[in-house]
Design goal:
With about 270 residues, the protein is an alpha/beta fold. The chain has twelve helices and ten strands. The strands form two sheets. Strands 4-3-1-2-9-10 form a six-stranded parallel sheet, with helices on both faces. It has a four-stranded parallel sheet with strand order 6-5-7-8, sandwiched between helices. Helix 1 (about 15-25) links the parallel strand 1 (about 5-10) and strand 2 (about 30-35). The chain is globular. The two termini are about 30 Å apart. It binds D-glutamic acid (DGL). D-glutamic acid binds near residues 12 and 187.
Length: about 270
């Protein structure tokens, strides 16, 4: 048993979709969340920049004495070197493994779609893991670089015409390929789930990468005997690198019933 908090980070607020699920499945755990709101988005940046940002995010979480780190960001998960992750002093997971596993378990036709940021799709991370698990799979991967700014700027509500048009533009080729499973490979995308689901149609199952990762992390913590042993009363502390005011406005949207907890701004460059 281990009473220390679980550390979760993202380039912005998308990782809160993983926190929401963590709170649901592990209500007795303390959580420290860092959202790099001052430097979001990561997905349009160079690989070296993303790795350098991720190192700082991880150092900050380690300074908070976390027992386990979740990179609740498809972009970091697709970019941060696995050898470096393996050398960290605490266990680390990204979202690619759990989301790929969920997609492979879901598909019946063997046609899987993946959507993510430009950096995620360029890395080929999901496709490589899925091909290992399911040889012969047909993969359609599509970068959706405008989705993160739409979500971070409050355009995720159903009925935004701009959002509907952009969804149709990005997802028409994916729908035409006849996929039956679509990985939301960026943790911001569940905020667009209803609109994406409506566009793709009822025959397509959407895989929420943050949600399935939270579930997998809960199992890993249990296997490693790292759970706190408490069944409720877990707290959450939130840190951001830009003004906490925007975070407070948006956290309900991401966290739903689990909103709440102190928010503090930190100087991430110092880490
Ligand atoms: N939530 C991040 C991800 O999963 C957003 C990426 C970005 O900052 O561009 O990829």
């Amino acid at each position: 048993m281990d009473p220390r908090p679980i550390g979760v980070f993202d380039s912005g607020l998308g990782g809160l979709t993983a926190v929401r699920q963590l709170r649901r499945v592990l209500p007795g755990e303390d959580i420290v969340y860092f959202g790099d709101t001052g430097r979001v988005p990561y997905g349009s940046r160079a690989r070296e920049t993303i790795v350098q940002y991720a190192r700082q995010d991880i150092r900050f979480l380690l300074s908070q004495n976390v027992k386990f780190i979740i990179a609740a960001c498809g972009t970091v998960s697709s970019t941060f070197p696995s050898e470096e992750a393996a050398r960290l002093p605490v266990p680390y997971t990204g979202v690619v493994g759990a989301a790929s596993r969920a997609a492979v378990n879901t598909t019946r036709s063997g046609k899987i779609g993946i959507i993510g940021t430009a950096a995620t799709i360029r890395s080929g991370s999901y496709a490589a893991v899925i091909r290992d698990m399911l040889p012969g799979v047909e993969i359609t991967a599509q970068a959706c670089p405008l989705f993160v700014p739409l979500v971070e700027n409050g355009y995720a509500q159903n009925g935004s015409r701009a959002t509907e048009l952009i969804i149709a533009d990005y997802l028409t080729p994916v729908r035409e390929r006849g996929v039956d499973t679509l990985i939301l490979g960026c943790t911001h995308y569940p905020l667009l789930k209803k609109s994406i689901g409506d566009f793709m149609g009822p025959g397509v199952t959407l895989v929420d990468s943050g949600k399935v990762t939270a579930q997998a992390a809960a199992e890993a913590l249990a296997d490693l005997d790292l759970l706190s042993g408490r069944t409720d009363g877990g707290s959450a502390r939130y840190y951001v690198s830009d003004t906490p005011a925007n975070f407070a406005e948006q956290e309900t949207m991401f966290l739903g019933e689990y909103a709440g907890g102190p928010v503090e701004r930190i100087a991430i460059d110092a880490y």
